[in-house]
Amino acid sequence: MKHVEFELNKEFRDRFQEALDARDGDFIRDSLQEVNPADITALLYEFNGEESKYVLDLLTLDVRARIINDLDADTRKNFLSNYTTEEITEVVNLLDSDDVADILNELPIKTSEEIIARLDADLMSQVIDLLRYDENVAGGLMAKELIKARDHWTVVQCVEEIRKQAENVTKFYAVYVVDDADKLLGRVSLQKLILSDPRTIVKDIFDEDVVAVETYMEDREVAEIMSKYDLESVPVVNVQGNLVGRITIDDVVDVITEQAEEERQLMSGITEDVEEDDSVWRNTRARLPWLLIGILGGMVSARFMGFFEMEIARITAIAFFIPLIQATGGNVGIQSSSLVVQSLASPGFVEEGLWKRLLKVFSVAILNGIFLSVVVFGITWLVFGYDSLNTVVSLALFFVVVFASFIGTVTPLILNRMGFNPALASGPFITTTNDLLGLAVYFFTIHILL
Fold first, then answer.
1. Which residue in 15, 267, 309, 347 is a FRET match for 229, CA 20 to 30 A apart?
2. Are the CB atoms for 413 and 422 separated by under 8 Å?
3. Backbone φ, ψ for residue 233 (5° rounding)
4. CA dist list (Å): 104 to 35, 45, 89, 99
5. How far apart are CA 300 and CA 304, in angstroms?
């Protein structure tokens, strides 16, 4: 089916709202007839659950199922509260087993059990098996639908079986080869099956070099493996090595997106997974902890400056450069920590050449420190004229850059080693730490040299 290009603008949104208010089903059906389901999903975020249900009831069942599956978890949970268990069952019967399991996990237990009892027999068995696993492991991420063949089959038998199994598999990229006990032996590409002699035995043409993941493996590890080996799908095996499912690239994209969103929020100083349209209290609660830590850091900084009250009173120009020192230290620290957090996503970062990486960071910090110090020395000389304070500020800035870079580098490494998300080291954490560090270095240098 060909889909038209769709643009959600204010004019269309207002006209669509009028049609919804008037329950003008003909306009709604005609305007969405050739629109991609993904675009319809984006449109439905503009309306409440009752209005969205009215729109979906006008569409075909397969399109309805795709749209409900594409909704984010929170929206879908609220949206499905407008549906009866019979209506939900009708939709999920068209979805893959992993998607059904995800939806059921979002619903109340009573509703989930009622839906499971109404599922098609094969799908029911697959979903019950998937619900045993946690959501954040390969077993909870996998789908039961796949194409497999016995190693002793001929190519003709294999192709015939593919035709039968493919009725329940929407996308497949290869055929997994198993023995009579369902132990994974390898994979054979569709191209090789097509080009091989029909009488050829599968075990003579399959590739034993197959990357697989275990059911208990964390979803982030699965994402790293699929990214590393550029896989479109990966088979999942249990502890006995039996093939139990597969994970496709679209499931992994969701994991990567969630991980990136989590790290972005941590780096911004948000401690919970929140959206803009969440409640005021939820947004406040997510942002407040790091804001309080920032205030505490500011109070400590103010108290720290009080120890050097005599120096500030004696040379008032000292206070002019405090914002410069703090801002530079914070920026350098965030740059360093962000690069380390990014590198930690690559397996083996700490083990492979850690000291070499730290030496490189230290070298970059020294060069940046020298350059920035020279620039600040030149500007202060032009503005204030030559004074011993110029030298002190430039020297203090150099040490702040070096120390801030060191703190920004080692902090995420330490957090990662302790089992915490290293993204915590970016943003408010580093900024607050380096504010205090910068002031300490600045006033200590002044105290010694002036």
1. 267
2. yes
3. -155, 155
4. 28, 21, 10, 9
5. 6
For residue 102, give the amino acid letter.
Answer: D
Q: Which residues, listed in sequence order, are joined to residue 174 by a DSSP beta bridge? A: 189
Contact 147, 191 (CB under 8 A): no
> Would you state the structure tokens that stand for residue 279, as one six-digit string?
């409640």
Give the total residue count for the chain: 450
Nearest by Cα to 97 from 67, 120, 63: 120
Look at the block and give the residue holding tokens 């080692």.
410
Name all domains of the chain by residue range, CATH numbers in brackets.
10-136 (1.25.60.10), 148-253 (3.10.580.10), 280-449 (1.10.357.20)
Q: Are strands 184-189 and 174-178 parallel, antiparallel or unpaired?
A: antiparallel
| Residue 309 CB neighbour total at 10 angstroms | 9
d(Cα 394, Cα 370) in Å, to the nearest integer?
Answer: 9
